[in-house]
Protein 1
Amino acid sequence: MIWLWISIAGLVTFFTRYSMVAFVNPKSLSKTTRKILTYVPSAVFPAIIFPAVFLDKKGFFVSIENPQIWAFVIAVVVGYYFKNIILTIATGLISFWVFSYLFH
Amino acid sequence: MIPLTIPVIPFGVIYGVIGVEIGLSPLVTFAMSFIIFAGSSQIAFAQLYTAGASPLVMIGSVAAINSRHFLYSAVLAQYLNKLNFYWRVILSYLMTDQAFSVSLSYFKKNKKNTHPHFHMLGSGFTLWFLWQLSTLVGIILGNVVPEELGLTFAIPLTFLSLIISELKKLDHLIIIITSGMASLVAYNFPFKIYIIISALIALCVAYILITKFKKVSQ
């Protein structure tokens, strides 16, 4: 069944891209709607980030000694300072490995 | 030639590695890059699928993540509306965050060009090709890299990197924290619906910020 779900996800994604190009009047989006859409990444991505960092697979909070919390904090600080996408990911991963080793 | 605002190649590699690491088959991992062709929603889809989410939630989450395309589509429509059906379909398929920003600035600068859509086709196809290629590299790497490295931690890091430059904006910061807190509360709700619920709550807050506190959102 996964092929069906992937195909539907693909169609849905295509539709979001094709939507306004398909219609004659793209001004049908109000200013407020446009503004709200600029917030979509900030509204969706934290819902993927927070549970992956702060919760275990069963949904309980991880302990304060969990390396991923500290690696995440470092990635936020470094990423915030340098505003570099790859640097954010690399710093987070390397810190994660270092803390995993230290807390082991 | 193309100012890549978001580095496509490392992203594709990360996606390929993650797809294999969390248990998708190489074929499925690659096919998603071809069929969905939207990095962040592919990662979310893969994660939800292997976590046993219901299909409706997987597709709903993809829709939520990609709803930002409505905006791109609306903005680019004035440049693409006059093209024939096939052009519109192809260019829509290729419309990514990067293709949008590159093409929009090109369209604005080259208003006299009668065929600006060829530029979008070129940049869009280049990105598409790099995405497929880097996904393949990631899939190969994912089969080699040991699971002990904990590369699934790259998932939250990848999404963090995509909003890292928004952290200094107060309005975005409020929305980010709202969504994050909501997701922790809603995580154990049925069907892994937490992403959709958190996004809706955060977007309601965004609506309030926009309409009631115009100063904050400028």
Protein 2
Amino acid sequence: MKNNLRVQRAIKNITQAELADLIQVSRQTINTIESGKYVPSTVLALKMAKVFNVPVEEIFDLEEGD
Amino acid sequence: MRNHVKLLLNLKDLKMKSKFLFPAWCAWLGYFMSIPGFILGYLNIINNYEIPGFGFKMREKSTIIQSAFENFTNELAIFLVVIGLILIAFSKTKREDELTARIRINSLYWGVMIYYSCYILGLTFSLTFGEIPFFGDHLLELNIFTPLLIFIFRYYYLTYFSKESYLIGESKFLPNKPYRSIGKIVSIISIVMLVIGIANKNNELLDSIVSFSYLGLTIGLMLWAFSHQKTDDEMVMQQRLESLQLAVYFNYTVLLFATLIFYSVDYLLVLTLAQVSLLLFFIIRMEFVNYKNNKVLSQFEGELSHEK
């Protein structure tokens, strides 16, 4: 699965640490998700979508092979 | 950022729960217990040190295998080390989230797997070439805390190695076919051999069969525990890893109680059984959850056909 979390953060102008605070996870977790190494749970994905005020599909997208 | 404040309040209610963990400060308590525990245990085993007066008269007369006075130095060391390591291993991190929970549980899986792999290799080596110095003598004591220790090192390595992000350790399992069936068959045969061997003491042939069936049982349970189920998905994996965590809690609780209740020869038997009990509890819990899942599913399907 790929994501454009970095782009979304840039649009809203919030840092990894701020996003982490908003959704109650550690900054390392945000970084690990951004780098594509970890696929978050649905709960976490929905929280992020809420922060950026977009549908989940705009942040996360299935890749071929998923 | 201001419009996020209201959102923040809403999102806090949605905080995810990590299951069966201690509060973060317990980790420090864990260090305060386990480090003195290790020192005490080391002195007790290597230098035969006993805290003077820490014990009382248990029996009327001393026999060859049981002395009248029991000293509780080694029991104290076991309690400090085991409870301490459990607290370090299962305390929440400062900021506990789903990823740290996942890394923890994957590290636990890894620790148990590495420990038992080393154990099987060590046991095979000593059965074919003879006892390994130190390892052979202290196997029972090492067994008490080594899986936890490997797990803690792995967890700290994955979470603190880099400040920027976590390292992900995925759990890898053997394919369902043929490993799971082999595991079940080998485990059951080994248990039968063990029971026959223990029931008929004073028979040299059976004695060697017993030591081989311990090895067989460990290998069988390993294959059983670490191979995929027929249909394996995210939820099954989650339940499996949770079962492992509960098995660790249960195993060490039983071990600590046994430490209080059993002495000398009986306790040696407990420690011998403790070598495979963790895997055994893990499998029992896993198969139980499996059974429950299937039952719920068949009930659900029953209702559906009823509606039709």
